[in-house]
Structures are given as structure tokens and as C-alpha cells.
């Protein structure tokens, strides 16, 4: 076993006499307390007896002596370390943390190292990776042990929600001859994926390969999932091919990640490709699970193909898989979103008969369905039923949440009953529920619909004050409101504010501005926005009917006033890509603004 270097960068003056009894056995403490007594006090945790001894000197220097003494067991040093930190409110140095970690590594006490480094990362707001690495190289002689300690530091950074620090450690490790392992790299990749930092995920993955750190199934699945969620499906497929070449077989998690990517990507044929992946995995002998079917059902429902979702429900049953609450809620929401409320209710009843309790997401989907069909009395009855009887979810009663209120509030506004919507909003806030971006969008859209856009802008200001980040739908509703009132210049002011706050104009924004300026006869300005949209590559707008479809700006010298007229004549004044009425929760799990009902139909209870 290797020996630790018995020095810090600059040893402090000795508070304690050395334990080496070179001069007839000097005592450990200046007042002649032998080291055995010190050890006994620490092991028996007689801190009240030890405290006066420490107070007469300095706990940090006392710790220094313990760390550099051969007379004390590492467990005793660790006990003193924790006690002195808590009782004296001492912030121990990086060098002391590193020294203690190396001693623990020497004794193969790895769980204690993890715990100690977790405390280090949690307590120390400013951590210098270079200082930590230098301390490791200075105090430790064994490169393998050093790498183990550093690996656990990266893991501690990830677990404490500091992936940026973990990434810095990974980047610098090679400079100090340290080798992180999959134990830290896999969780770091997962954390980076969760923060949608796909560029960093790709860097870490490629760097792992360069450093000859062989990825395992978890590594591959994490990277594939990250690429899939980011829409980089070609890269995800490349990783699948790499894992096969390296002898790692894809499993159900691999296929679920790919299927999720296709379901989220959008575009022609996306669900066909996702469905083909299901067939491929079955042909490969990999059995799909409930999650596989939930992903596909959700994708088909968002694609306005509830029939395909129902087909998959039957297929999963045929395979002996039991649908869960998420499966039913997804289909109920899809049916209600497409106006098939009766079928949604039947599926809710079937769900109950199978022994599954409908949760708040189930009821929210049904309320949304009733609201969309203008059956507000039925929606209110269901809403009141939740309040009176309550909904059991994970052994606790659940009341209507923000999404539930949003659906009913939106229904009242759509029906022109602003007073009922206002009372419901007040009731929601009285219950301690905080309005979200959907709630504000509902209110803003309702005001713009009745020509009160200036008042709606005040709600935008209110959102900002309350820390709610406006979405593109928020701004586009206001821009559309001003354009509808024949005031596109005010709409332009809103657009500038939107872009100043970090949201670029999207296809919907351009559609509204082009239509707004065209309707007041300002075709030159409308033409300018059309050209600007094309130059920025916004070619996904579809006018509908026989109108303009994704005209390219290349080779044509830009759009003309005639092009604008033809586009408007084809129905281009619509708002593709967003719900026509932000007052309603949209179809599919996402609902309005990517939230709404979908927040309750995901993988929560």
C-alpha cells in the first residue's frame, strides 16, 4: 500500500508536539495529554471534554496534526473533521478535504469518500478544479487512488446539481493525468441531457472514446436519448451503429429513445418511422414495454391520429401488457381534443373498471373536452365533482390544479362569459394556485378578441413582475390583437419588445404582421416582412388551400406585392403552428404552449 506524502504546501507551526517520541516520548498536547487519550475522546465522541483543549488552540491546526499523524485511525480523523466543522463552524481547506479523501481511499472506504465529497461540493460555493487537482498530485502518490477521488468529485458535482463544475473537471482531468470512469461520466451525460446541452453531451461522448473510456449500454442509451430529444436523429442512429460495432446490443430503452425522437421531431412520415422502429425491435427479439406504447400513442394523438392510438392500445393488450393511467389519459385527452368526448368518457369508465383510478389529469382532459364543445355546464359539473369528492392519487386527495382551472377559464372566455372566468380565476388564486403562462395567455387572448389589446399589454407587464416568462403565443396574441384593430405599428413595438427579451419572430409572428399591414393597404411593408421571413429561413408556413407554401427566397429576387396577395388569397392570414384560440388547451399531451393538460398526463401521478 502506498504512503501519503506527509506535507501540505506550507505546513503551519506545530500546535501539537510530534507523535514520534524521539525525545523520550513527548506527549501529544502541550499540557501533557497522551495521544491515546485524545483517540479515546474522539472515538467515544466526548466532545465536551475535547472542546476545551481545542478552544485553547485552533481546530484547523489540530486537524492538520491528526491528518499527518500515523497514530490515529482514519475513522477517528473523519469523526473529528465532521465535529469540528459543525461545532466550530470551521470551513476546512481544499487541501484538508483532499488529504482526508486520500486516507479514506487508502483504507478503501469509498462510501465515506462519496459522503465527504458530497459535503464538500454542497458547502463550498466556490470550488477551484485546478486547486483540487494540484492538492491531489501534491498529497497523493498513487495515481489510481487519485483518479478514484477525482471521479467521486465529478459525481458529487452532478448529484449536487452542478453539472457545469463536473464538466470542467472532466475537461481538465487529462491535464493532471486523472482518469474519470463511467461511474461519474454516465450521470454527467444524463445531467447534461436534462439541461438540453447536447453540444456538451456530444463533446463528452467523443472525448470518452478518445480517452479509451469504453462506453457501456447506459452511456449509449443516454447519448441516444439526448440526440433524439434534440431532434438530431441521424446522430442518434450513428451512435446505435457504433454500439453494435462495439458489441453492445440495443435494448428496449435504446428503441424507446429513438421512438421518442421521431415522435417529438415532427414533419412528414415521422410517425411512420416511429411505427417501423416498433416493428424492427419486435423482429430483433426485443419486447416493447408499456413505455414504448405510451410514447407511440402520445405521438399518434399529437398527430391527430387517435385511431392509431386505439389500435396500439389493443395491440399492447394482445401482448399481455397492462395499460397504465398514462396510457388511458393520453387517449382520453386525444379523443377529447378532437371533439370525441363521449368516447373519452367511455374510456374513462373502462379505465375505472380495470381497477385504475382516474387522476386529476383524467378529469382535466374531460373538462377540456367539454369546454371545447361548449358544454360548459357539464364541464362545471365535473369540476365541482372534483372539489366535492376529491380525486385520489398516490394515496392522497388531489384538488383541481392550474391546468384544470385553465381549461374551464378558457371555456368561459370563449363563450363570452368573462365574469364567470374572472370569478374562477379569483377562486383559483384563493386556493393558493399560482397562474402559469397558459392562464395569462387565456386572459390576454380574451382581451385581444374584444379589442382591449392595450389592457392586455398590462397583463404582460403583470406576468413579468410575477416572474412568469411570456411565450411566443403570448406575444403573438398581442401582435394579432393590434393588427386586428388596424394598428400594426403598435404590433411592431410589441415585436421589438419580444425580440429584446430573447424571443425571435417565428412564422406566426410574420404571418400576423404581413396580414396586418396588407389589410391597411401597406403592401410594401407587408412585402418586406415576407422577404425577411424567407431570408431567415422560415419556410415552414403553410397557407392552406392552394396558397403559398414555404416559398424559397433563393433565385427569385424576393417576394413581390403580387406574391403577398396570392399568399393572402390562399389563406395565409391564418396562424399556422399555433392554436387558433390560446384560450383552449390544445390537442395531444402538450396542450397550449407545451403545457396545459399535458403537464398532468405525463409520467406524474
From TrEMBL:
<dbReference type="InterPro" id="IPR011990">
    <property type="entry name" value="TPR-like_helical_dom_sf"/>
</dbReference>
<dbReference type="GO" id="GO:0006397">
    <property type="term" value="P:mRNA processing"/>
</dbReference>
<feature type="repeat" description="PPR">
    <location>
        <begin position="251"/>
        <end position="288"/>
    </location>
</feature>
<feature type="repeat" description="PPR">
    <location>
        <begin position="506"/>
        <end position="540"/>
    </location>
</feature>
<dbReference type="GO" id="GO:0005737">
    <property type="term" value="C:cytoplasm"/>
</dbReference>
<dbReference type="Pfam" id="PF12854">
    <property type="entry name" value="PPR_1"/>
</dbReference>
<dbReference type="InterPro" id="IPR050872">
    <property type="entry name" value="PPR_P_subfamily"/>
</dbReference>
<dbReference type="Pfam" id="PF01535">
    <property type="entry name" value="PPR"/>
</dbReference>
<feature type="repeat" description="PPR">
    <location>
        <begin position="324"/>
        <end position="358"/>
    </location>
</feature>
<dbReference type="Pfam" id="PF13041">
    <property type="entry name" value="PPR_2"/>
</dbReference>
<dbReference type="GO" id="GO:0003729">
    <property type="term" value="F:mRNA binding"/>
</dbReference>
<dbReference type="InterPro" id="IPR002885">
    <property type="entry name" value="PPR_rpt"/>
</dbReference>
<feature type="repeat" description="PPR">
    <location>
        <begin position="289"/>
        <end position="323"/>
    </location>
</feature>
<feature type="repeat" description="PPR">
    <location>
        <begin position="471"/>
        <end position="505"/>
    </location>
</feature>
<feature type="repeat" description="PPR">
    <location>
        <begin position="216"/>
        <end position="250"/>
    </location>
</feature>
<protein>
    <recommendedName>
        <fullName>Pentacotripeptide-repeat region of PRORP domain-containing protein</fullName>
    </recommendedName>
</protein>
<feature type="repeat" description="PPR">
    <location>
        <begin position="181"/>
        <end position="215"/>
    </location>
</feature>
<keyword id="KW-0677">Repeat</keyword>
<feature type="repeat" description="PPR">
    <location>
        <begin position="359"/>
        <end position="393"/>
    </location>
</feature>
<feature type="repeat" description="PPR">
    <location>
        <begin position="436"/>
        <end position="470"/>
    </location>
</feature>
<feature type="repeat" description="PPR">
    <location>
        <begin position="401"/>
        <end position="435"/>
    </location>
</feature>
<feature type="repeat" description="PPR">
    <location>
        <begin position="146"/>
        <end position="180"/>
    </location>
</feature>
<comment type="similarity">
    <text>Belongs to the PPR family. P subfamily.</text>
</comment>
